[in-house]
DNA sequence: TGAGTTCATTGACCTATGTTATCCTTTGCT
DNA sequence: AGCAAAGGATAACATAGGTCAATGAACTCA
């Protein structure tokens, strides 16, 4: 079970068995049921979650009750309300399970202790952060210059594993459009494809 | 001139005169003219830029020539094509001056040398990165759930100094709408305000 | 000073997306 | 099996924002 995690770390830093064990000793294994909430608005967020199996979502609920999904989390991803996590402010997002899931909970304070003992873990998370930063940057760029159809197609290309397992209305929410619009887009794409196949 | 920079650092970490001098010794002062380009697509990006005075923009140019602005940079901000900077990939953005500007150029390799000598600078940039990450996160959230009028009003509130000095069509570009739309939005807001004042 | 450039605004029109309501299928539960 | 809930599609209509074209003000610079 922890093999995937070890690989995950070793794509960025080299670690010994002992260092890996020390890292694992900070983690709390949690088994979660579909729809279970890990973080709700207002919570103090002291942990981030590494997904072993299943699928999570981080989403914001607006005053009128609409939800917009900021992040999906499947196997090998980290999920949290990172604004609250980094800034020690009350959560503005919710994090919940789309499927039954198994996650490893990593406490922030324990992590900072670990940074002092084994600095290479600080390096690991700094590099993860730059990657996440760049990913957000290009998501903003997509939002600025691409239409919904293109954004949907690129989402399917970039995250085929997510597209296949989460309902369309959640994808719509992530893309910033309504489910009805996504439905229209998918119909349009299917028709396009059909007419190509006929020709 | 470097006083502002020192304050900028000291909002996050404490540093001695000597440490500050060592940091400054890495920096190259550059005076730039309006419209001058610091980074163009395809460049290798080895530096980030701290703005002493003036105003920069980081923008993407799409195939059909449309530009979308990802970031403005005024006094006390860092600007670059961060994707290229962090990943050592060719620049996809351009960075140019909206006004005559003075910047301090910080070379990535020299910075990494400095990290080894004085680790607290690594801490400084890691914290700056978390702040930037959170800012991008909330920009995405705004894009998902707010209409253009709201986004414009919040932009004016959040960045009054930018709103006052860059042309409206650049603000429109940053917000992901066309200048004509922003013009209509501004008209609508002015009318609303007028009718409130009359009442 | 005068011509060119940049920028903002406006109007007419068009298109993509949102809204509301309804219907149908699938899935899950007991 | 039978019912409820979830998910998806669709249609009619409304609206925000994009497109295109024209105008004029303000600024720049030779």
From TrEMBL, chains A, B:
<dbReference type="Pfam" id="PF00027">
    <property type="entry name" value="cNMP_binding"/>
</dbReference>
<keyword id="KW-0418">Kinase</keyword>
<feature type="domain" description="Cyclic nucleotide-binding">
    <location>
        <begin position="11"/>
        <end position="114"/>
    </location>
</feature>
<dbReference type="InterPro" id="IPR000595">
    <property type="entry name" value="cNMP-bd_dom"/>
</dbReference>
<dbReference type="InterPro" id="IPR014710">
    <property type="entry name" value="RmlC-like_jellyroll"/>
</dbReference>
<dbReference type="GO" id="GO:0016301">
    <property type="term" value="F:kinase activity"/>
</dbReference>
<protein>
    <submittedName>
        <fullName>CRP-like cAMP-binding protein</fullName>
    </submittedName>
</protein>
<keyword id="KW-0808">Transferase</keyword>
<dbReference type="InterPro" id="IPR018490">
    <property type="entry name" value="cNMP-bd_dom_sf"/>
</dbReference>
């Amino acid at each position: 079970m922890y093999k995937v995690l070890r690989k995950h770390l070793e794509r960025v830093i080299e670690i010994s068995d002992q260092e890996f064990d020390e890292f694992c000793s900070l983690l709390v294994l949690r088994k979660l049921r579909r729809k279970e909430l890990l973080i709700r608005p207002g919570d103090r967020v002291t942990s981030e979650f590494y997904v072993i199996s299943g699928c999570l979502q981080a989403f914001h609920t607006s005053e009128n009750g609409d939800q917009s999904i900021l992040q999906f989390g499947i196997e090998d991803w980290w999920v949290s309300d990172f604004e609250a996590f980094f800034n020690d402010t009350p959560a503005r997002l919710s994090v919940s399970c789309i499927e039954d899931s198994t996650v490893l909970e990593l406490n922030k304070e324990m992590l900072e202790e670990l940074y002092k003992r084994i600095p290479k873990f600080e390096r690991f998370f700094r590099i993860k952060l730059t990657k996440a930063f760049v990913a957000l940057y290009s998501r903003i760029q997509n939002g600025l210059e691409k239409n919904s159809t293109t954004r949907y197609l690129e989402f399917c290309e970039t995250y085929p594993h997510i597209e296949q397992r989460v309902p369309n209305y959640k994808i719509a929410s992530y893309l910033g459009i309504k489910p009805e619009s996504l439905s229209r887009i998918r119909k349009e794409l299917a028709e396009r494809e059909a007419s190509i196949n006929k020709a």
